[in-house]
Amino acid sequence: MTNTIKLTDKSIAALQPKDKNYDIWDTEIKGFTIRVSVTGTKSFRFMHYFAGQRKVFTIGKFGTLTCAQAREIVKLKAGQVATGINVQQEKIDSRQKSFHELNFQEFVEGPYFEWRKANRKNPEDTLNRLKYCFFEDYSKVALKDFSVLMLETWKTKRLNAGIKPDTVNRDIAELRAVLSKAVDWEILEDHPLKKLKQSKVDKTTIARFLDDLEKVSLRAALIRRDERIRQERIRANEWRAKRRYDLLPEIQADHYADHLHPMILVSLNSGFRQGELFSGAWEDANFSTRLFTVKGKGTKSSQTRFVPMNNEMTHVLNVWQQQNGGIASGLIFPSTVTGEEFDNVCKAWASIKEDAGIKKFRWHDMRHHFASMLVMVGVDLNTVRELLGHADLKTTLRYAHLAPQHKSRAVDLISV
After folding, report:
1. CA dist., res. 269 & res. 367, Å (int)
2. Residue 400 carries which DSSP code?
3. What is the number of domains present in the chain?
């Protein structure tokens, strides 16, 4: 098929999609084309040169516009180009003008959410937080009309309602990010909340870690759970054997009953975030170098880091790999239901904590436990920062109180 024909409604309707996008040029008006996509969508375009550069002006879709209507628009745009008008810039200016006219809700749910989906993790969580915190009061407010006084009033209402100051600060940080992006995109000339101060909070947080008794209790509870599952499997197979049903795989005495036991031991020995654990693959575990690669796409900072595997972590992963047939690729801990990544293990984790008698200890606190143990045996904070993947040493300083020796030595240097 030639790529040049007289464009009419009939000739365009006859065009069929191919394995890649292609253009058909009109024989009568220079630069008038129809783009046929692989999905079958057909779009009128005006290709031309302006200031020595090739430009493409998209007019609209065939079906929404007739060929005759598109032809008239092309004639108009060609005339403007001939007189030195950049029609492409006009279109950009028009789009920017429409962005300026968006209210807060329209901006957040539109261009800002699309940007978050392409560039940040968990965009839906961010959108839901903004909706919950700000849409009731500010959904119809223009971006330029946000003010420090407006947010001070909002802060006061939230604090009086019993919301913790650090929670209020995090909520405002999400709002600041929205308005910062509006500044980056030149929708706002200046950030309207740049003079807004954070609520004062005690930033010296105490990391939760397991004491010696809790460590023993947790491991004992894991062993009891494995044995309980193993005995349930034996009884189930006895029941199935009497009815001549196929037997379920036997759980060996030296094997883990399921994913939970090795998951917890790996977390305690690596400091992995839960998402990093869930997304970990066998290809990431190098048993020769005893290094585990935590890939950037699964980390909070988007930066890849390498975590040494200590003796217990290496042993746990070896046992888990062998009892799964020596598999060398795919997820280390795939969901038993979907085969994909877990999204949580909340129910099993709560049951283990109850059996172990451990209170107020989240899954994420195993990460704090890992860091705390390192600091208490003398590992310097910068090394801890690198192992945890903290972008800023300030985050790691929460563990500094666990290594008070350097402060004691400093005080001992003086005499009164």
Report:
1. 9
2. G
3. 3
Planar angle of CA 167, 172, 178, nearest 5 degrees: 140
Distances (CA, A) of 229 to 178, 244, 263: 49, 22, 16
Please name the helix (run of DSSP H) or strand (run of DSSP E) that holds residue 60, with its range, or none. Answer: strand 53-61
Look at residues 81, 99, 199 and name the one whose alpha carbon lies nearest to residue 142: 99
- 52 and 148, same domain (yes or no): no
What does the buried/exposed string (b/e) look like for 124-143 if buried means 16 or more CB atoms within 10 Å of the residue's CB? Answer: eebbeebeebbeeebeeeeb
DSSP state of 298: G
DSSP string, 98-158: HHHT-BHHHHIIIIIHHHHHHHSS-HHHHHHHHIIIIIHHHTT-BGGG--HHHHHHHHHHH
CA dist 397 → 36, 185, 284, 403, 409 (Å)? 58, 35, 29, 10, 19
| Domain identity same for 112 and 70 | no
Residue 395 scores a pLDDT above 50 = yes
**Angstrom distance (rounded) from CA 332 to CA 204:** 36
- What residues pair up with 53 in beta bridges, in sequence order? 50
CATH number at residue 61: 3.30.160.390
DSSP state of 206: P
| pLDDT, tens only, 113-160 | 989 888 887 888 899 999 999 999 999 999 999 999 999 999 999 999
Better pLDDT: 98 or 95: 98
- What is the per-residue pLDDT across 235-268, written as a single tens digit (0 to 9) for each? 999 999 999 999 999 999 989 999 999 999 999 9
Burial (CB count <10 Å: 0-12, 13-18, 19+), residue 50: middle
Residue 398: pLDDT band (50, 70, 90) is confident
Place of tokens 């399921």: 258
C-alpha 137/C-alpha 311 separation (Å) is 55
Task: Give residue 127's domain range.
Answer: 101-184
Tokens 């915190």, residue located: 133
Strand order through the sheet with 291-294: 285-286, 291-294, 305-308
In terms of Cβ atoms closer than 10 Å to its own Cβ (0-12, 13-18, 19+), residue 177 is middle
* Global pTM exceeds 0.85: no
Q: List the structure tokens of 206.
A: 């105490």
Q: Average the pLDDT over 31-48 and give the result.
A: 92
